Each structure stands twice: as structure tokens, then as C-alpha cells.
């Protein structure tokens, strides 16, 4: 603001100096002054004022968005190679906090679990043949961006939110071995999860998708 006020003040002083007495010829008023933005650069040479406007463009690279889906996580899909899945999720969420062999499933199709804070991704197979087969997510830790479906549903959403988002595709099971749970049928597969209860105010405790077995 100081630069703009300074130019305005110079204009007022110039107009005052042009006032003569009665009958005196008044010289033509000077041309109107121009306010220069603070972001401009002004240089003066031999009475010539040159104003150079400067523009700064900031480029920000956005990380890919992970979306909870019945067929994967948006940036990755079930069946994708393990190396590609870990790389893409690392780009989106940061490096994993745990990577372990699932020794409790020696003859099943769950061989490896990689953990990104509350998000766990499960792979089946060995070596370069490992493929993504399932994911699950628990209560938000704040260590990674909050994870939700394309409809905005995530851990902590209410049963009312679930019903509003999925309507006829939603099944709520009041009693199960792990407590109340839900299933959402989609063309690409099934979203599942556990609930704190079945009333509208109860919430989603965990979510998951994919098929994993530990059968012999």
C-alpha cells in the first residue's frame, strides 16, 4: 500500500503547484497518475517509467488418491503384482510400517501382509507371482489420509450413512461370530465390514474387500 499511496500523493502536489492567481493562464494539468501494484517492479531512466508485471506459478504434484472399492483400492486392483501395488500405495500413503509373511496360512492363499498404518493389503503367491487379493482397514490413525469409498463411506461412518449410500445393495447382519456386520453388493464385488451396532447412530468399526482363505 505504501507504493500506491506515494504515487497518489505526488499527483496531488503536482496539481496544487499548477494553481495560479486570477487571470493567469493555467497550464494543462499533468496526465493522471497510475497506481502500481506492490507485486510490480518499477524502474526509472531519463524520465521514463517502465512497469514490469511479475507472475509466479506454483506447481504442486498431488499424490494419487486411494479409494476403498470392492475390486481394490482405486490406484490398484485385485490381481495386480505385489511390487506394483506396494509402489503405488507408497506413493499415495508413504512407506509401509510392516511387511510380513503370513505363516498361519501355510496352505491357504494369503501369504503376505503389508501394513500402511490402519490399511492392510494381503497378497497370495510367491516371488514375482504374488498378487493382491484383499485389503482391510481399521480406525483412522491420522498417519495416512482418511480412506473412504467413492460414496464417502469409511470407518466411523454411521449405519444411517451406509443405508443412505447403498440402499438396496446393503445387507446388515445383526449377529455374527465377530458381532454385527454388513455387506454391500457391487458389480465389481462385495464390500464388507463390522459394526458397533445396527441402529442408525452406530458406526463402522472395520472395512474390507477381497477373498482370503486359510484352509488346508
Give me the secondary-structure topology:
Layout: H1 2-17, E1 41-45, E2 48-52, E3 67-68, H2 82-93, E4 98-101, E5 112-116, E6 119-124, E7 131-137, E8 148-149, H3 159-166, E9 170-173, E10 181-186, E11 189-195, E12 204-210
Parallel strand pairs: 3-8
Antiparallel strand pairs: 1-2, 4-5, 5-6, 6-7, 7-12, 9-10, 10-11, 11-12
The tally of domains stands at: 2
Task: Report low-confidence residues grouped into runs of 5 or more.
Answer: 1-46, 48-60
Major sheet summary line: 8 strands, antiparallel
CA radius of gyration is 33 Å
Number of helices: 3
- The proportion of residues in beta strands is 25-35%
Distance from first to last alpha carbon = 77 Å
Oligomer: single chain
Approximate helicity band: 10-25%
- What is the helix/strand order? HEEEHEEEEEHEEEE
Q: Which geometry do the CA atoms define?
A: globular
Task: Label the structural class.
Answer: alpha+beta
Q: Determine the mean pLDDT.
A: 77
Q: Work out the number of β strands.
A: 12
The strand line-up of the biggest sheet is: 4-5-6-7-12-11-10-9
Tell me about this structure.
This protein is an alpha+beta fold. It folds into 2 domains: 2-52, no CATH class; 67-210. The protein is 17% helix and 28% strand. It is built from 3 helices and 12 strands; from the N terminus they run αβββαβββββαββββ. The strands form 3 sheets. An 8-stranded antiparallel sheet has the order 4-5-6-7-12-11-10-9, with helices on one face. It has a two-stranded antiparallel ribbon with strand order 1-2. The protein starts with a helix and ends in a 6-residue tail after the last strand. The model is unreliable at 1-46 and 48-60 (pLDDT under 50).
Amino acid at each position: 500500500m505504501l507504493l500506491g499511496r506515494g504515487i497518489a500523493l505526488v499527483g496531488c502536489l503536482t496539481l496544487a503547484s499548477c494553481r495560479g492567481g486570477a487571470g493567469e493562464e493555467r497550464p494543462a494539468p499533468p496526465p493522471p497518475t497510475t497506481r502500481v501494484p506492490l507485486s510490480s517492479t518499477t524502474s526509472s531512466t531519463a524520465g521514463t517509467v517502465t512497469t514490469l508485471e511479475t507472475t509466479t506459478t506454483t506447481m504442486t504434484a498431488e499424490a494419487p488418491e486411494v479409494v476403498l472399492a470392492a475390486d481394490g483400492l482405486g490406484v490398484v486392483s485385485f490381481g495386480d503384482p505385489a511390487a506394483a501395488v506396494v509402489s503405488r500405495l507408497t506413493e499415495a500413503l508413504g512407506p509401509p510400517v510392516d511387511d510380513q509373511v503370513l505363516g498361519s496360512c501355510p496352505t491357504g492363499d494369503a501369504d503376505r501382509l503389508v501394513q500402511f498404518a490402519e490399511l492392510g493389503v494381503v497378497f497370495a503367491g510367491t516371488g514375482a507371482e504374488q498378487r493382491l487379493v484383499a485389503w482391510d482397514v481399521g480406525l483412522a490413525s491420522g498417519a495416512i489420509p482418511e480412506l473412504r469409498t467413492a460414496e464417502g463411506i469409511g470407518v466411523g461412518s454411521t449405519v444411517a450413512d451406509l443405508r443412505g449410500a447403498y440402499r438396496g445393495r446393503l445387507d446388515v447382519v445383526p449377529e455374527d461370530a465377530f458381532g454385527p456386520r454388513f455387506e454391500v453388493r457391487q458389480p465389481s464385488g462385495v464390500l464388507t465390514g463390522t459394526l458397533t451396532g445396527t441402529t442408525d447412530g452406530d458406526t463402522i468399526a472395520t472395512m474390507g474387500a477381497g477373498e482370503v482363505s486359510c484352509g488346508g
